[in-house]
Design goal:
Elements: H1 5-20, E1 28-33, E2 35-36, E3 46-50, E4 54-58, E5 62-68, E6 70-76, E7 79-81, E8 84-89, E9 92-97, E10 102-104, E11 108-112, E12 115-122, E13 132-136, E14 140-144, E15 148-153, E16 156-162, E17 165-167, E18 170-175, E19 178-183, E20 190-197, E21 201-205, E22 218-222, E23 226-230, E24 234-239, E25 242-249, E26 265-272
Parallel strand pairs: 1-10, 2-11, 12-20
Antiparallel strand pairs: 1-5, 3-4, 3-6, 6-9, 7-8, 8-11, 12-15, 13-14, 13-16, 16-19, 17-18, 18-20, 21-24, 22-23, 22-25, 25-26
Length: about 280
């Protein structure tokens, strides 16, 4: 049986229509990512993964568009800069993107997650190393041989233990020999000091009269370049016999409009006696 030419044309058009299928594009959605908490100059790092091998890194608050519908995982990284660690919360979250809508992820907030400790060592002869050990959470242990700042520490309780140092036949003893400090998340270092001495004198410095939260500013100087700065009452041990000067500066108050408001300094002297 023969088919007329017009019949062949109609049959070809029918076959093409059947093979072509539906050419409509798949529906997509959007995802809003909001990040905050970092200081100027630092960029967050948020990895976004999802359907059809989707992967993109976000470094600022943004809206991702034309996303295939489905489940997306956001993984945020910690940032370290200038001896400070910033951690995100939440670190990981899962968001579902639906067609023709904007899904908003939970806000990602960065905050300081590390602590710093500034250890000041004084009183040893030039070139002689201290023997100070700093111990803290999760088995942390670090030996300090001189004035230094420890960065990126886990917040928590730390113990600073100093041992005797021998030099040229003299025994230099540390004061205090042991001290505990509690470190909180901060970009500002918590200060701790260890002062060595080869003498046997003791000097008590008592501070009173300041309101709560206000530190004193007291300088103690003595023989052979001895110098110590105090912010509260202290017992200074292993001092060489001689004359010591104690200078105190009053806390600065807001001056009246016609005054320069310069703080006044007072000084006194005392002698450390050698213990028998």
């Amino acid at each position: 049986m023969s088919i007329p030419r017009r019949g062949w044309v109609a049959l070809a058009m029918l076959v093409l229509a059947a093979c072509g299928g539906d050419t409509t594009a798949p529906a997509t959605g959007s995802l809003r990512v909001v990040v905050g908490g970092l200081p100027t100059g630092l960029q967050p790092v948020v990895h976004v993964t999802g359907p059809r091998a989707f992967a993109q890194t976000v470094v600022a608050s943004t809206t991702l568009t034309d996303l295939p519908t489905g489940s997306y995982t956001l993984t945020s990284e910690s940032i370290t800069a200038d001896g400070v660690k910033w951690s995100p919360s939440p670190a990981t979250q899962t968001i579902t993107v639906v067609a023709h809508a904007v899904a908003t992820a939970n806000g990602i907030a960065y905050a300081i997650a590390s602590a710093r400790l500034a250890v000041s060592v004084a009183g040893l002869p030039t070139g002689v190393q201290a023997n100070v050990t700093v111990r803290g959470p999760n088995g942390f242990s670090r030996t300090v041989n001189g004035t230094t700042t420890l960065d990126l520490l886990e917040p928590g309780s730390y113990t600073i233990a100093a041992s005797d140092v021998l030099s040229n036949g003299a025994t230099f003893k540390p004061s205090p020999a042991t001290q505990d400090v509690l470190l909180s998340p901060s970009s500002i270092a918590t200060a701790a000091s260890v002062t060595y001495g080869a003498g046997s004198g003791t000097l008590f410095v008592t501070v009173s009269g300041l309101p709560g939260g206000v530190d004193a500013k007291i300088a103690v100087s003595g023989p052979h370049g001895y110098a110590r700065t105090l912010t509260t009452s202290a017992k200074l041990e292993f001092l060489e016999a001689g004359t010591y000067t104690i200078s105190r500066r009053r806390p600065r108050r807001r001056p009246p409009p016609s005054s320069t408001g310069r703080p006044r300094t007072r000084a006194s002297s005392t002698r450390a006696r050698r213990c028998s």
